[in-house]
């Protein structure tokens, strides 16, 4: 059974000062089973992030369905889910890693990772241990654990962002250029976590420009340029 089915997804944006309507994506279609990883590739501006944000419901699609097999709600069209359902899913089932860290001020990196676990009812001592384990895995300097992230470099913020999203072992994980500003060692750490999550059953949708990183990791590749004619998903062998 597919855990995620994107069917004929379309989204456009109104550019009011130009009085124009811009088509971001049209008739996007793919499906994923538990533990599969699809990589979305294409040139900048082709609509890759729009797909992820529509699944996460940051954007509301104009047409199509996003059918997600939720552990709590069963088969749910994310395009029509209630705000309460989306809040629950973001907290308990669906993770999102963007290139940018957007968190409440005056909360330390350690607290951010701990809070991600506490909000899904981890015991406090276990949350503390898991948070430290995760921060250590991503080589975030211990001197930064009790610092505020607004002082971090771009790479440090991205590693913290990945820590927060992956520590809960989400059922579905969305990755928007998660290795964009990382060095080779940090990229390998991300790869290890993705491989571990896949083995544990997490389903992943990721955007990458680093095609070498995708090799041997993605089960399927979705090519954005193909949507201009006949949108398709190509199995990665």
UniProtKB/TrEMBL annotation:
Q: Which Pfam families match?
A: ABC_tran
Q: Which GO terms describe its molecular function?
A: ATP binding; ATP hydrolysis activity
- Coiled-coil spans in chain: none
Which residue range or ranges hold the ABC transporter domain? 4-237
The alphabetical list of record keywords is: ATP-binding, Cell membrane, Membrane, Nucleotide-binding, Transport
SMART domains per UniProt: AAA
Q: Where in or outside the cell?
A: Cell membrane
Instruction: Indicate how the chain sits in the lipid bilayer.
Output: Peripheral membrane protein
Q: Which InterPro entries does the record associate with it?
A: AAA+_ATPase, ABC_transporter-like_ATP-bd, MetN_ABC_transporter-like, P-loop_NTPase
Q: Name one GO cellular component term.
A: plasma membrane
Q: Which family does it belong to?
A: Belongs to the ABC transporter superfamily.
Protein name per the record: Alpha-D-ribose 1-methylphosphonate 5-triphosphate synthase subunit PhnL
Its source organism is Pseudogracilibacillus auburnensis
């Amino acid at each position: 059974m597919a855990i995620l089915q994107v069917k004929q997804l379309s989204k456009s944006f109104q550019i009011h000062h130009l009085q124009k309507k811009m088509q971001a994506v049209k008739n996007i279609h793919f499906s994923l089973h538990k533990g599969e990883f699809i990589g979305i590739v294409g040139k900048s501006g082709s609509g890759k992030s729009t797909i992820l944000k529509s699944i996460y419901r940051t954007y509301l699609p104009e047409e199509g369905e996003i059918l997600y097999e939720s552990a709590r709600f069963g088969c749910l069209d994310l395009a029509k889910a209630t705000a309460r359902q989306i809040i629950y899913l973001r907290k308990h089932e669906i993770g999102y890693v963007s290139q940018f860290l957007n968190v409440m001020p005056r909360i330390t990196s350690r607290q951010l990772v701990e809070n991600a676990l506490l909000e899904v009812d981890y015991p406090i001592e276990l949350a503390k241990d898991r948070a430290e384990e995760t921060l250590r895995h991503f080589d975030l300097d211990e001197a930064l654990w009790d610092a505020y992230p607004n002082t971090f470099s771009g790479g440090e913020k991205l590693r913290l962002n990945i820590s927060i999203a992956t520590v809960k072992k989400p059922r579905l994980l969305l990755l928007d250029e998660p290795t964009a500003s990382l060095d080779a060692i940090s990229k390998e750490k991300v790869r290890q976590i993705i491989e571990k999550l896949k083995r544990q059953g997490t389903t992943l949708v990721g955007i990458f420009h680093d095609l070498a990183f995708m090799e041997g990791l993605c089960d399927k590749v979705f090519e954005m340029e193909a949507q201009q004619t006949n949108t398709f998903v190509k199995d990665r062998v």
